[in-house]
Amino acid sequence: MKMRKYAAWGLLISFLCLCVLELWTSYKTIANAGLKSIRYVCGVRESGE
Amino acid sequence: MACILTIGLNVGSGGNFPPGICFLEFVMALNKSKCMWIISILAIALSWFAGERSSRDSLLVQLHEMEPSLTDIEKIQEDIYKARSAYGEVYVAVEAAPGYGGPVKVAVVVDGEKRICRLAILEANETRSNFDDVIKAGLLDVFSGKYIDKIPAVHAVSGATMTSGAILQGIDKAVHRIDAARFGADYTETPGRISQSQIAKTAVAVCLFILALWVNSARYPWSGKWGRRGCLFLSFVTLGVIFAAQPSLSTVVLFLGGSWTSGLASYITLLCLLLSGFIVLITGNNLYCRMICPFGAIQEGLSGIFRPKAPALEPWMRWIPRLLALAVICFGLYFRAPGNASYEPFSKVFSFAGSGFMFAVAVVSVIASLFFLRPWCGTLCPMRSVFDFLRFGRNWFIEKHSKEK
User: Fold this and answer.
1) Three-state DSSP string of chain A
2) Per the CB < 8 Å rule, is B118 touching A41?
3) What is the model's pTM?
4) How many angstroms separate the CA of residue B164 from the nearest CA in chain A?
């Protein structure tokens, strides 16, 4: 019974760590782009090439 | 909010007590769960308004950021601008097309020789991995420097069809509108239509919910246990394997953020969320988690091998997924980024989209399903928290009204 309890704790903590890492990556994506910044730009140089 | 509560209570009590006392009485009568419920509502409302305020961004700022040499910007039609720049006189069109997480806004700059000088994605709420795939595939770069009457035929990026389709549609509309406005070409805008396959998928999702309601009702003549398993299996095949459309926290943020009002490429996940929430509010049953969730079906199917028990967690641990879900909903609403407000492995399992962390969560869930009954559902799944939240509000409302009667 105790083993099952520890296993459930381990499961929850491992899920929590992975999900927090995922959310941190998402936050970095948004923070790098900036809330008011545009997501992607491409174009030709002014010389025409 | 306090004012609203005070006014509400004052009205309810006939206005006999001073507002401060009424509010204090109300607060003192609340238990921990009710306090948390109100705090959650306040946090969600605050994030919504803060996000609305900060995203009220001027389009001109974005256009300048896209092409710093733009000057003398003059609006000539709705979403079409004339300006001077390092390329000479240019025309800028800003168009939006429905993507997976709401409208994808695209800007195109065309010079006097009909050449596309600049392209930019001004706004996109798509799933991060899908958006990255589209950018990595160089979808926009293909158009850069091309003449608008010789636009190359470009196909949607495999694995990110809705996101790339929305970008292509936005570019197509923008280019044609500039061609019509500046160079006199004929262009009639065709209204966006929902495809027949989307209508069929939506009908299947509705049928699944009707079936689940029937199986759950007293009128169902056969074994409810096998009926529930049948529902889970059908949902796994349709919503999971074929449609890869499972509601998640992203869908909750998408709904609360309101970007769906501008059109979506697919409404299935939103529909599933709304039907599930509606059933919780009407019947008090979380039918979705028990009978429809495709990821729950996988876990339950695997748990059938050794017939293990659900993870034994302390009652206070139930607050971990609830608080995490609340934090992520507030985060998603503040940044108006439904695509980034998710930490469920659903998309990784059914459409192989998502990060390595989500792959790890999916693998751990699948392996743990052999030793625990529904390990993800029993530990960190946020959808259960969302439906618990709705059910709590419903029961509180009913309790209050029955006392008043």
Assistant:
1) CHHHHHHHHHHHHHHHHHHHHHHHHHHHHHHHHCCCCCCEEEECCCCCC
2) yes
3) 0.81
4) 13
